[in-house]
Amino acid sequence: MKKLKDYMGKRNFLNTPEPFPGIPNKTEMEGDGRFVVQEHHARRLHWDFRLEVDGVLKSWALPKGLPRENGERRLAIEVEDHPLEYLNFQGVIPEGNYGAGEVIIWDRGFYAFLEKTSRKIKIVLSGELIRGAYVLIKTGKEENQWLMVKYQ
Ligand SMILES: [Mn+2]
Fold first, then answer.
1. Residue 30 pLDDT
2. pTM of the predicted model, to two decimals?
3. How far does the centroid of ligand 1 lie from the alpha carbon of residue 40, in Å?
């Protein structure tokens, strides 16, 4: 990536469809890992970020949604894995049920891993609204507590 510093520095990949180095364009990514962000009007509004990994959706709840600007960081609470079918779910979970409230698909698309360890997940997201490189870092304070940072 170092050789491409100038290329990267001149572009905001949220605003241009040009290639992000190391990741194919969205149309070329069919079949790669998918992601979804669902706006969930539960008792407390939050956004659920889900990544397709090993046949399930790894899931985090973000009280303030995904970071949109480079350097921005947002709390992400890891929650239980969800089935792949949840990628397409939107609707109203009736009162009295777990997570009662409306779920709206806020964004979806494809992603690629740049790095993955048990405490750090670097990804590039290519959705309709979200484009760019993100890192999820386990904070160590609580077992399920992560930070999601947009860095490019
Ligand atoms: Mn939720």
1. 42
2. 0.80
3. 5
What does the block give as tokens for 42?
Answer: 């539960």
What are the tens digits of pLDDT across the range 69-102? Answer: 999 999 999 999 999 999 999 999 999 998 999 9
> Residue 69 to residues 29, 41, 90, 114, 123: CA-CA distances in angstroms?
24, 24, 27, 19, 16
CA of 4 to the centre of ligand 1 (A): 38
Q: What is the mean pLDDT of the chain?
A: 88
34 alpha carbon – ligand 1 mean position (Å): 18
| Cα 82 to ligand 1 centroid, rounded to whole Å | 11
Give the pLDDT band (50/70/90) at residue 137.
very high
46 Cβ contact partners less than 8 Å away, ≥ 6 residues apart: 40, 61, 62, 63
Domain extents for the chain?
32-150
Q: Which residue has the tokens 């290639």?
A: 19
Ligand 1 centroid, distance to 47 Cα (angstroms): 6
DSSP code for 19? P
Contact partners, residue 82, CB within 8 Å, separation at least 6: 50, 56, 57, 59
